[in-house]
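Hey, I'm writing a tutorial for new members on how sequence and structure tokens pair up, and I'd like a real worked example in the thread rather than a made-up one. If someone can provide the structure for the chain below, I'll link this post from the tutorial.
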Amino acid sequence: MRAFPFFRPRLPRRLRDRLSGSVLSGRSVVGQMFMIQLAIVLLLAATAVTTLMFQSRREKTDGAFDRSVAAAEAFANAPGLVEALASDDPTAELQPHTEAARKASDLDFIVVLNMKGIRYTHPKKDRIGKEFIGTLDPVREGEVVTESVEGTLGPLHQATVPVRDDDGEIVGMICAGVTVRTINLLLSDELPIVVGAAAGAVGLVTGGTALVSRRLLRQTRGLGPTEITRMYEHHDAVLHAVREGVLILDEHRRLTLVNEEAERLLDLPTDAAGRPVEELGLDRRTVALLASDREVTDEVHLWADRLITVNHRLIDEGGARPGTVTTLRDTTEMRALNDQTEAAQRRLSLLYRASVAIGTTLDVGRTAEELAEVAVPEFADLVTVDLSHAVLQGEEARGSEGRLRRAAIGGSAEGQPLHPVGTAFRLEPDTPQERELLSGRAVLTGDLDESGWWRGDDEEHGRVVLAHGLHSLVSAPLLARGVVAGIAQFWRGRGRADAFDMDDLSLAEELAARTAVAVDNARRYTREHDMTEALQRSLLPTAVPDQSAVRADYRYLPAQAGVGGDFFDVIPLSGARVALVVGDVVGHGLHAAVTMGLLRTAVHNFAALDLMAEDLLGRLDELAERTDRDESGGLGITGPITGATFLIAIYDPVDGRCVMGRAGHLPPVVVRPDGSTEFPDLPAHPPLGVSVMPFETVTLWLPEGSRLALYTDGLVESRHRDIDEGLALLADAMAEAPRDPGDACDAVLAAMLPERPTDDVALLIARTARLAPDQVVDWEVPLSYASVPAARARARETMAAWGLEESSQVTELIVTELVTNAIRHGSGPVRVRLLRDRSLICEVSDNSGTSPQMRNASMTDEFGRGLFVVSQYATRWGTRHARGGKVIWAEQRLPGRR
């Protein structure tokens, strides 16, 4: 009987000394095993050192190739390399740079070659101008070549790459590499460390082997009767105290040792020891296992009502056949506990995945689909999600409403028997299960065949479901803030034999609760998004106003992530002019839309005052600064205006003059009639609310048929390209777009925007027009009352030439009063301009900066009635200031126009 490791008999000193010396003598089996193990360790150490050195050499060689390719490609793509190759003296320009790059990249050489393979650079200057050693034909074809050659610096590893110009043509080659000598030097630095580590490992293993050998000697030699008796006593006590059955059979398959736990597990008789295994009353399967020569490790067997884990080993005592030792461990309770633990872990894992995967988007339908994707197939074979009609429309869920619509279905789509997505249902409290669902509690249906509430009134559909193999169902309500927003149903069929239980019911409730929160968040977002978009669209123009200066069209696209504050407008001005404006309020959501409406209203009000472009920008800047200051201490009804950008272009169709100014906005695109495009160089000013300098404008003269594109940054900026690339694409799109503004808007959006833009986009495209020469009459009036009759006569002649004799009298009266007012209160020169557009416009300009005021003259006043008379006969009138003077204008309806 072998000694067990827990028993250490104390040996006499003489015997201990003899045994310790025999470890290294080689006279004993243990000593011979020690010498063999020592030889094996030395061989393994030598093999490991050799292998490490070969592996290190291969890694350093591969690293040299990688560094060479990277350095060569980086130098081949360096700015100015192509121009240096084409210069008169490439060596003078490239030699310093190649040496600097070689030292920086830790390489032995970087060589620049021409297409013939002649060196332009080399670490050794005497090699410059000589033919390169290596393979170049694949490089001339555009390939990268890595090779090991015998070069001018000795054996080396090098990489050669082509150099391409802007047209993609190969104009030269770059070769970089490392010599074998450098790699050998690196290996020589590592060799002492590797050898030292191997020697340390050999020493540790040798010492450990010596200690083990000495211990084996102590355990197998010199044992006296006392020590053996004590060993048996300890062995017997431990063997019968453990909760593990032990059976030992000799070579004749007789039971030589059995402990109490084995007797209990196998229900053995008390006199079982010494009897053949066939006479112990065991079943044939157990006898075959105990008597077999097959080794078994942790094999589970069902004996009676217990799960037994068996380990079966052979004991070779040198006889004809080996004996066996078998250990038995009762794992019934442990297996049940493990099963429960594994089930709990699976549920936790499923809940974790649900918390990550459900609610990734703010879309109600997609959220329902995510629940189906998470639950199938681990928890259920099929999953259906039915949502309230109100929730699908973005409204609050109403608890008393039982109208549902199928929003998602998950599982095997082929041949599934459930109603498809979009099917409408009505959940009525006709059964206890439905009342439970409407009250917010989940329902477990363990056997669909025995329960009929889930069929509703559709018996045919119920038969189809059962025929498909579905047998178990959990229905869980989606509770959103205490109100049932929908129903999630989890189905099991042929793919899963076990029916749902109470643990599954709890898991389904948790999945439904997480989904309900995500669905409610998506619903609220959808509602706010729709409200904000409706508000913004109501604040944006619905049509281009009637005017003759431009033919315009626009497009507005809200972002998928949220409505922003982009706005645009076409505003008719006095004198047949038109103002094109576009702006962008920072942020998204309701505040941005309200702030946009405030700015658009302010632009209309300031435009009605006939302000110059720079003055209008200044007024808007003051409004933004004042509003933000007031809102900072108030309720915050609007969002912040500071940071909003704005662009205005005022176009005059009489002479084609276009005045542009901006506050932090991107410049417009101007497309000339010949197809050329440009971005006008407008003075750069900060966004509204932060400007500290007066605004400046630029005046362009646009030919008839020119096109202007005003846009917001969402059109040209994205995550995948920078602003310069976006502007270049916009210029190309405008140049190729149709002349019709509406078609041009569609073409530009199709060319510029991704499928789901991340920012809202406003685009306004206008094509300029000119008034015909016969629609404009302009003349100067001397600064004298005597010139008034002549001005009136000129107006009469113009009206006759236009065929507007019936309006001539009113026009003469307006010209008379405005010219007289300019002569009396203004300064010369005085000019009169008549425009025949959609209305008849009379303009009188002078160099005075004072604004006329209409008065209610008394009966005795000699003056003050002129503007009153004008206001009575004109449709509208006003004053606009210009640099160096003002213009008083009045409009009349043309005959036949309402």
